[in-house]
From TrEMBL, chain A:
Signal peptide: none
Natural source organism: Cryptosporangium japonicum
Superkingdom, natural source: Bacteria
Alphabetical keyword list: Membrane, Transmembrane, Transmembrane helix
TM region positions: 23-45, 65-83, 104-131, 151-173, 180-198, 249-271
Protein name in UniProt: Integral membrane protein
UniProtKB/TrEMBL annotation, chain B:
Keywords: Membrane, Transmembrane, Transmembrane helix
Protein's UniProt name: ABC transporter permease
Lineage: Bacteria, Bacillati, Actinomycetota, Actinomycetes, Cryptosporangiales
Organism (species): Cryptosporangium japonicum
Key word Transmembrane helix present: yes
TM region positions: 26-49, 61-83, 103-130, 151-173, 227-249
Amino acid sequence: MTTLTVTGPSLPRVIAAEWTKLLGLRSSTIVVVVTAAVSGLVTYLSANASSGDPGFDPLDSLTTGLPVAVIGPLVLGVLVGTGEFSTGMFRSTFAAVPRRLPVLVAQVVVTTALALLAAVLAVAAAVVGILPPASSRGITPDLLSEGTPQSLLGAGGFLVGAALFGLAAGALLRRTLPALLATIVVTLVLPVVLLLASELASDPLAASASNTVPTRTAVVNTIITFTPTGAGSLLTEPSSSGVDGAPNIGALGAALVLAAWVFVPLGAAALRLRRRDLV
Amino acid sequence: MSGHRLLAVTFPRVLAAEWSKLTSVSSTLWIALGTVVSTLSLAFALGLFVRAGDAVSGASVAVSGSLFAQLGMLVLGVLVGAGEFSTGTSTVTFAAVPRRLPVLAAQTLVTVAVALPTAVVCLVGSALVTTAARSAAGLTLDPADAGTVRILAGYVLYLTGVALFGVGLGALVRRPTGALLAGVVLFVVLDQLLATNPGRITDVLRAALPAAGTRLFADEGALPTHLGAGGGGLVLGAWVVAALAAAAYRLRRFDVT
């Protein structure tokens, strides 16, 4: 008589399962490739456009592709978080892993891994993108110059953070369209709104008259600092002393802000997963 | 023997069917409500930053919630155009209307029927919630002024156009998420990216994007010289027609999966 050994769902196995699910989709590969391509192309176009300026520094253009490249990791995260709920696959998943939370942990792990790959490729593509405009001016960009390694690291961290933010929002809302809309509003539309507000708030006459920052400007800039995109731009400009009137939180503070945007919705998603019914 | 009376597939009946589909899902109401609430909140919040002496008109303060309003319109249109393909209702719809194109035409009309009133409510509501801000800054909203009328009407026209572009994009892509993403990239991301790198080429590119339609409700002084309000409206109109035509072509010539 043979005994059947049933192996329980250990975390490494759940991670392996999530990894298979993620790589089994064509869209995952597409997102990684498109993110890198868009990052390289936009950086190249931007550096090329400013290469005629007298004080042209190709390193200034390194992070110009970031606002567009961030869409890729964001979508990747949202799809990992909501995909199963829209296809109905979640029933098999949570039947196999009744404790539920290991699935969320595994999704965080695999999303981080793939987003890291996308981020490394996107940053590398951005570096390649500034080379032709730089060589047209006879400049050899020095990637080890002051602040540049931190800036590249910050850009990569911002992209991975965006993927995890998408995952957290997706796991919390469980529906693709609302989750995508929410993350798009926060990362892409909110910065434009705040830019509009800061244009209205700035008073060119008052600014030149005194050194104090007007209260309105300070309010808008403080909000900007604590949005994911604002924190991301602080990460990529380690030498900056923050924006006018906002508390100077530095690169570490910016990383913590980004982490809060990931872990607060992720915690809520874990709570919903643990306490409430699956749809 | 009871006779089965078969009703012919006429356009009014297709229109009635699309109308009941749109009004019987609760998401339509929520999208409309969400659009109005977020637009009014944004207009009110931006109104707090307006001061006397700012180079803005009273009408432009009233339409300042457009950034959120256009997103709501895009979602509305995309769901009308692509929603059926993700739920599978499309199979039934196109079995009932084998000529297919009347469905797209009816979807366009019912979208206008929802988008236009929503845009008007957004406009009137925004004008009301910014009353205090406008009077504090000494800005007037004079309905008899031609420039003001152009901005207010342009706002409603733009928002309706965005919803129609959403229908075309949704019916073309057939996936709500893909269509929404493409819409946001076209309307917000690319425009913003080009705006941060001003130059001759980027200005021309910006004028060719559907976001050029925002010039319909831009202040006279803020309008670029090469493409004014009417031109911007025509650019958006061209994008709407192109998206709907491409969707019609795909619908007519290819499988409906």
